[in-house]
């Protein structure tokens, strides 16, 4: 199951108590204080890890508490500091304070990490002062996680257009394919290796979008958040109109839905693929589509593996250009 939102409660460890202790030797007029300091409580760190793909684990566990520091001891013995606890999340996780929605950190790169709550400092032993002090409590907060996948290419299309068939053809992904709409229910990432260079790119398959998705139809536009961070939008159009729709209207509907979600999305570089070109209707429809949509269109057939290499290299080229333009 793909889970892309979670709320958890994190509590750092308390500082250990400073020790209250005195020792006395025969012949001394006064006892001497020898209570050691308490150790620091453990902090809680959230870290982006490439081996974690969803926020599913937080369905089962919502409370995290780091260990407390050890108390100081007599003989001026300092209590041990507690170890920090590390919570692993997928890269692309945005962390917010759940109480006020303030951003704590956007972990948009692998291995990035942030201390979300700091452990309490240890108390001071009476060796240093007249009276020992208790340790400070660890910070605590409720945080929300929101995952927005990070990919180079995001697939946009009606259900059944062949998005999953395409990602399976072009990448190492294994997205379920079937002849009914809404087969894909959660985003899937695939890695594409170039056939001519060492380059690779990440492509994201998301559930199909239909007209009025922004009003909650179909699976809604909730999943569009996963293409917010993609660099290139790749529209997948069923050019044969197998489900009885007109490809020109499909494209217009998809553009409208993106516009309703976030009009800035449409400023991204885009490519269009005309899928199912093995079917006779597709050839006819493509002529009209080209007249109506004056953009570069890549005809392909996932079924017959036609045009796949061409679109693959076009994507690498477009991505290279995008990265060059946005390099500083
Ligand atoms: N004839 C033909 N059929 C295709 C082609 N590509 C995909 N299909 C078929 O179209 C149907 C839908 O394919 P999917 O890849 O599951 O489509 P999808 O866009 O991922 O669909 P959702 O996950 O429901 O949004 C399946 O029956 C595929 O076999 C193609 O190039 N030609
Ligand atoms: Mg699919």
Characteristics:
single chain; 328 residues; alpha/beta; Spo0b-associated Gtp-binding Protein, Chain: A; Rossmann fold; 2 domains; 6-stranded mixed beta sheet; 5-stranded mixed beta sheet; elongated; binds guanosine-5'-triphosphate; binds magnesium ion
What topology does this entry show?
Blueprint: E1 5-11, E2 22-23, E3 32-33, E4 44-48, H1 57-60, E5 63-65, E6 85-89, E7 93-97, E8 103-107, E9 113-117, E10 140-147, E11 153-157, H2 163-170, E12 188-193, E13 200-205, E14 232-238, H3 247-261, E15 270-275, H4 280-292, E16 297-299, H5 308-325
The structure holds guanosine-5'-triphosphate and magnesium ion.
Q: Which hetero ligands occur in this complex?
A: guanosine-5'-triphosphate, magnesium ion
Q: Which residue ranges are poorly predicted, with pLDDT under 50 across at least 5 consecutive positions?
A: none
Instruction: Output the CATH homologous superfamily of the largest domain.
Output: P-loop containing nucleotide triphosphate hydrolases
What name does CATH use for the topology of the largest domain?
Answer: Rossmann fold
Identify the strand order in the major beta sheet: 12-13-11-14-15-16
Helix content: 10-25%
- How would a textbook summarize the main sheet? 6 strands, mixed
């Amino acid at each position: 199951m793909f889970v892309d939102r979670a709320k958890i409660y994190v509590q750092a460890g308390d500082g250990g108590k400073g020790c209250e202790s005195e020792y006395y030797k025969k012949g001394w007029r006064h006892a001497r204080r020898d209570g050691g300091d308490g150790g620091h409580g453990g902090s809680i760190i959230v870290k982006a890890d490439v081996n974690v793909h969803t926020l599913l684990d937080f369905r089962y566990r919502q409370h995290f508490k780091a260990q407390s520091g050890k108390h100081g001891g007599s003989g001026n013995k300092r209590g041990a500091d507690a170890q920090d606890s590390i919570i692993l999340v997928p890269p692309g996780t945005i962390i917010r304070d759940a109480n006020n929605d303030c951003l704590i950190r956007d972990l948009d790169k692998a291995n990035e990490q942030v201390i979300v709550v700091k452990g309490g400092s240890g108390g001071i032993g009476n060796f240093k002062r007249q009276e020992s002090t208790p340790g400070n409590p660890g910070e605590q907060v409720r945080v929300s996680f929101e995952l927005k996948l990070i990919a180079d290419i995001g697939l946009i299309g009606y259900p059944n257009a062949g998005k999953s068939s395409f990602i399976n053809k072009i990448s190492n992904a294994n997205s379920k394919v079937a002849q009914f709409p809404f087969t894909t229910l959660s985003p899937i990432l695939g890695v594409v290796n170039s056939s001519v260079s060492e380059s690779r790119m990440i492509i994201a398959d998301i559930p199909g979008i239909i007209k009025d998705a922004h009003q909650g139809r179909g699976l809604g536009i909730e999943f569009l958040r996963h293409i917010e961070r993609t660099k290139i939008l790749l529209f997948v159009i069923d050019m044969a109109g197998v489900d009885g729709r007109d490809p020109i209207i499909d494209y217009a509907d998809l553009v409208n839905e993106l516009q309703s979600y976030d009009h800035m999305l449409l400023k991204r570089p885009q490519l269009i693929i005309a899928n199912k070109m093995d079917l006779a209707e597709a050839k006819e429809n493509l002529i009209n589509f080209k007249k109506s949509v004056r953009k570069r269109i890549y005809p392909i057939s996932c079924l017959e593996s036609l045009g796949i290499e061409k679109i693959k290299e076009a994507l690498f080229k477009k991505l290279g250009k995008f990265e060059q333009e946005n390099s500083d």
